[in-house]
């Protein structure tokens, strides 16, 4: 969806960062596309032919904004686009701008 959104906005250069190495490997052609996603990936590949696309891995802790947005999408089961950071994301957004670290702790 990010690639199609970038295309609709007229962007020709896109950098996708993903916390899933499996997804990064699929985009880079190092891993086969699951058959359920093959049609969608074929459409995506056709769009990406006209773009400069970089795909890289990022640890979840290094991108708290993306992690929070992904959790929002899972909880509310909706696709949404914001042209500015939504209110629930402002804390992480400002921490990211200031290059402050993010930590994740597991309870015992």
Automatic annotation (TrEMBL):
Pfam families: RVT_3. InterPro entries: RNase_H-like (IPR053151), RNase_H-like_dom_plant (IPR044730), RNaseH-like_sf (IPR012337), RNaseH_domain (IPR002156), RNaseH_sf (IPR036397). It comes from the Eukaryota. SUPFAM superfamilies: Ribonuclease H-like (SSF53098). One of its GO terms (molecular function) is RNA-DNA hybrid ribonuclease activity. Residues 2-72 form the RNase H type-1 domain. PANTHER family: OS05G0353850 PROTEIN (PTHR47723), REVERSE TRANSCRIPTASE-LIKE PROTEIN (PTHR47723:SF23). This is RNase H type-1 domain-containing protein. It comes from Lupinus angustifolius (Narrow-leaved blue lupine).
């Amino acid at each position: 969806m990010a690639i199609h959104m970038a295309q609709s906005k007229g962007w020709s250069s896109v950098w996708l960062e993903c916390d899933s190495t499996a997804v990064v490997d699929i985009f880079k052609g190092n891993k086969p596309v699951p058959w359920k996603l093959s049609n969608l990936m074929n459409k995506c590949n056709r769009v990406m032919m006209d773009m400069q696309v970089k795909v890289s891995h990022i640890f979840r802790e290094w991108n708290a904004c993306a992690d929070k947005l992904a959790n929002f999408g899972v909880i509310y089961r909706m696709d949404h686009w914001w042209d500015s950071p939504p209110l629930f994301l402002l804390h992480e957004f400002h921490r990211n701008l200031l290059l402050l670290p993010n930590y994740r702790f597991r309870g015992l």
